[in-house]
What does this fold into?
Amino acid sequence: MSAGLAERVKALAQEVGFDRAAISDAQPLHEAERRIKASITAGYLDGLHWFTTERAQRATHPTGLMPGARAILVLSASYLARMTPPAPEPGRPRGRIARYAWGADYHDVLRDMARALVERLPAVAGRSVRSRIFVDSSPLAERPVAQRAGLGWFGKNTNILLPGAGSWSFLAAVILDLDLEPDQPLRKTCGACTLCLQACPTQALPAAYVLDGPKCISFLTIELRAAIPRALRPRMGTWVFGCDDCQEVCPVNRKAPTARLAALRPRTVDDAYPELLPLLGLDAEGFRTRYRGTPITRPKLWGFQRNVCVALGNASDPAAVPVLGRVLADNDRHPLVRGHAAWALGRLGGGAARRALTATVSKSLDRTIRAEVTAALAMHQG
Ligand code: B12
It folds into this structure.
């Protein structure tokens, strides 16, 4: 077991751009396996069709992910950027994008750094090194392994909090066939603080360390490939991609320093607080051009515009009414975008919104759009 080699590997991680590095052994993560399987049973991972008990098993058994695994190098990179929201301007409502998606796609940025690290490992170890890189896309329970390596502790909002840096950090891991001295888990906890549990607008944190995924705004705006449940829409505020509500209230996060990786920073104010109405004008090509290389392409154009409609419903700006009316009437649009435009018209209220909704009643409409129009008209009456 080499402590000196562990320190040299961690120093290399910083040289290639990671902020922090810590080492875990490659033993199974039994506690995480139990908790993740309990989450699946409770329905907290519903909607993520790939998140099966088989995946939970694999994600918590590092030697199954790389035979011969001896240690796991766990890495972090801060994505905390600061951007002051522009003053509200009537007629130009804006939405919000979660901080982690303000800049380039972190999968690419962190994977490139991890590859650079792996390439230099043989020179540091004095022999060839077998390794496997994990940046979210492949199954490894990254948060539990980061906790075991002492990189941070589990916050009650389920995110890993790093001492002095909070949770505004991505995680990555490299399984290695090197014998490296493991670090010890931290003794820190969130104490009696429950601010994050109270702050979640959709009550997606039913208890400390438990996330009810199907209620999480991050899930609803990024992963859900269907209609957003109507009861949750009014609580989503103006988030159009991801959500930071449970992180923004965290006292540990208030003291965090900003990220050193320039690629993860926003270039313009619209990368963080996009003007909403122009987003409904994007076609597939315009969407790709604008968001290529960022995480925002994940929900596809229709999923993103579905979210934009909900945000417009919540933004209370009457300038949205004619635009939403045109979206609702447009046969070439995805039915879910049209349906959510109807909901937004119902939520905004007023004569013009009602006229836009009633104008569609006589038309032949997809069943799901018709149900949304009926529900939206009922909101006007209520
Ligand atoms: C699926 C997923 C999601 C789903 C979550 C579904 C769910 N119900 O968990 C959705 C889409 C909602 C999501 C949202 C977000 N995600 Co996400 N997500 C993942 C992913 C791919 C898997 C997470 C997972 O396995 N979830 C299943 C749950 C049950 O397991 P878990 O979270 O790992 O850990 C739980 C248990 O294992 C248990 N546990 C295990 N051992 C121990 C030990 C102790 C002592 C305790 C107390 C608890 C405990 O507690 C945890 C909470 O239940 C990871 C990447 C990865 N491969 O790990 C990123 C990841 C967790 N996400 C990340 C981020 C940044 C986010 C968002 C902040 C993005 C945003 N701003 O919108 C939000 C945060 C929402 C939140 N409060 O958690 C980061 C988190 C970084 C960090 N510092 O913690 C990760 C690690 C990606 C990365 N590589 O950086 N995400």
User: Anything to note?
Assistant: The pocket of cobalamin is lined by residues 31-32, 35-36, 39, 44-45, 48, 98, 100, 135-136, 140-144, 147, 154, 157-160, 167, 169-171, 209-211, 213, 216, 218-219, 222-223, 242-244, 246 (CB under 6 Å). Residues 3-83+103-176 form a domain with the NADH Oxidase fold (CATH 3.40.109). The chain has 17 helices and eight strands. The mean pLDDT is 96.
